[in-house]
Amino acid sequence: MTPRFLFSLAVLLTAPAAHAAPALRVPYPNLDAGIRKVTARGGEGTAKIAPELRLLANQFRAAKPAAPDTFVYSKAQLLSRFGIDGSEAEPQVNVALTVAADTGDAALSALGARIYEHSASNTVCARVSVSKIPDLAMESSVYAIRLARSAEYPPVPPSSLRPRIRPFTTSRGGEADAVAFDHQGLTGKGVIVGVVDSGIDWRHADFRRADGSTRILALWDMTDNSWKTSKGKIGSKPPVVGDKEIIGTLYTRAQIDAALGKSGDVKSVDHEGHGTACAGTAAGSGADFPGVAPDADLIVVKAGENGANPFYFLGTQFIADQAKALGEPCVISQSFGSNDTAHDGDSLEEQAMNEIAAPGKAGICICVAAGNDGLSSSHASGRFGALQDGQADIESRPIQLFVDQPTLLDAYFKAGDEWGLAVAGLDKYLIDKAGKPVFFYVARTGKGIKGVTSATPSAPKSFAAFFKTVELDTVSNGQEDHLSIPLEPGSYLIYGFGASAKVTDGAFHLYLPFPGNASFGDGADKHAMVAAPGTASNVITVGSYNIRKSWRNAASKTTSYNLPVGDISDYSSPGFRRDGVVKPEIAAPGAYAISPLAQGSKMSLGADGKPDTASLTPDKQHLAWSGTSAACPYTAGVIALMLQKNPTLDEAQIRKILTGAAQHDDFTGAVPNNLWGYGKLAPAAALTATPAAPDSASSGKMGQPQ
Fold it and tell me: Which domain of life is it from (predicted)?
C-alpha cells in the first residue's frame, strides 16, 4: 500500500496558543498529476546553462513587459548578482565556460565572447552579451556555462548599541592592544602582504618609508582605464589583456613614487576606504596605530568599487605571480564575499583559490573574511525521511519565510535522494480565492522535477507560467541538486519531504540569495553561513571577536561601546561548511580595529554624510571600525611574520600552526565549533610554534617546502 501522510499547516499568530487558528491539513500530493520538467544541467542546449543565467537570458529575450507570473530580476538584484545596472539594451555578464580540450579562443570569440583567461583545466573566463548565452549553449564544444559571481565589500556591521561619548580618560577597562604581543623581533621584512579589495590610499603616511617613498610594489586598479585612455601615458599595461578587452591600469612602485613627488600621475582612488583600512591593519607602519607586519612590502589589487570584480581571483593570481618572480613569500588578504553560492567550497572562484594556494606551494597563503552575517536570518535547514510504511517523519518540521520583495529561494538536496519541497502561502501568494493557503509541491524523481498544487491558486494566476521559472541544477560535482523557486511578497511555510522510498540522507538547506528581500523565521539556522570564497578548502577563513570597546575620537573625547571584550562579535558569520569542514578556522580581533583612513572615502562619513567624528581618531588619519574584514588582515599580518621566520611554509602548514596554537577560554568553549573554529588567534604562540627556516632558505626568501 502506498503510504499517505498529512502536512500540518499551523497558521502562526502572535496571539496566545489558545486563540490560534486550527491546523489546516493537506494530503500527500498526487505527483502523477503534476507538470513534469527536465532541467538538470549537463545535457544539451539550454540545459548547459546555470539556472540564474537561464532566468537572466529569458528576461532580456522576452517581450516587454514580462508575462504575468514570470520572475523578473529587479534593478537591485541585477546589480547584486550580475553587475548589470538594468538600463543597458544589450547588457553583458561575466561567465565561466567549461569547454572541450581542443576548443580554440577564436571559435568562442566568433560567438561574441571576450576572453580573459583560458586555463589548463579547460575553463574559459569570458564576458558575453546576455542575448548570446543561449547561442553559446548550442555550441557542441561548450559543456557548461556558469556565472562568475562578484563579491561584496561588507559594510561595517551596524551596531545594535549606540556609542557613548564622554570625556577622554586613559582607562582601558581591561582591553588589550591587538598588536601588543611578542613579535620576537619579526616585522614582516622581506614578505609581501597582498590585498585584493577596494584599493588603497597610496598617499597615506602609513604606507610610506621613512624617506617618504612608497612601500607599495605594485597597484593594479581593475576599474581604472587610464592606461588605455591615455594611450599608455599614465600607468602601465595591466597584467590581463583579453580579446580586445583591457582590465584596468597597473601602477609600479616607481610610478607611485613619481606621483608622490608630483612628477607623475596615479589615478587610482579608494572611494570605499575598505581596502586602505585592511592594508593598514595587516601592514601599516604608523607610529601610533601600526599594523601587525609594519615592514612588509605591499601589492594591492583594486577589484572593484562597490564590490569585487567577478574575476577578482585574477588579481589574487597576479599577486602570487609577482611574489614568485621577486622570490618573496606572500600572504594575500581578501575581506569580501558572496552568499549567493552553494556554501560548499565548489564555486569557480574557490576552485581558483585552491589552485593558487595548493598544498606543497611554498610561501603562499590566502586569508579570507568569514562574513558579517551572524545576525542575518538567511539560512534554514531541515531533514525528512523516506516515503515508506512506518516512517514517522516523511516531512520535515515547518520553516517560516517572510518575503518583502519579489525574490528567489534556493534549496539544496542530496542528489542521491528523491526529495520534495512544499511551499504554502499564508496571506498574499499561493492562496485560493477565499484567501486560504495553497500548497505548491515540487519533487524530483528520476532526472527531472514535477510540480503540482493542492488547489487552484488565485495567485499565481497561471501555475504553468510560474512553474516555468522554477529551475533545477546540479552542484558540488554532481553530488547535490539545487532548486530555485521565485516567490512574491508574503508569508510562507516550507517543508521538505520524501518523494519516494529512495531517501538515504534527507538533509536539505535553504538560502536567500538576496537576503535584504526576505528572511526566515522559525526554522532559521545559524550555521553554514560563511561567505565564498571563505568556504574554499585551501584558504584560512577568519571570524571576528571583540578586542576594543573605546578610543579617543576626533573631538578628543571617548567613544565607547558596552561590548563584552573577548567574546565573539555578534555579526561574525557562523560555519561550518555544509559538508562539515571547519570554517572559519580561527577568530581574530575585529571589533574594534584602528586603521588608516582613506581621505574622503565612504568609511570616513557618518549616516548624515558628514565626517564621523565618533569613529575618527584625533589625527583624522585613522578610524575605528569593525568586521571580519578587520580580523582577516590582522591574521594575514601574523602570517607575514611567520613567513619571515620561515618562508618555506605552505598554506597547510600555516593552518596547522595557527589552529594548534589557538587560545581557548570561557568565551570559546569547546573547540572546534562553528563560531570560533579552533579558537582565538594567538600570535605569539603561533610564532613560537613556527619552525625556523631550513638552511637553504634565508629569512624572507623562499626555499623548498619542508
Answer: Bacteria
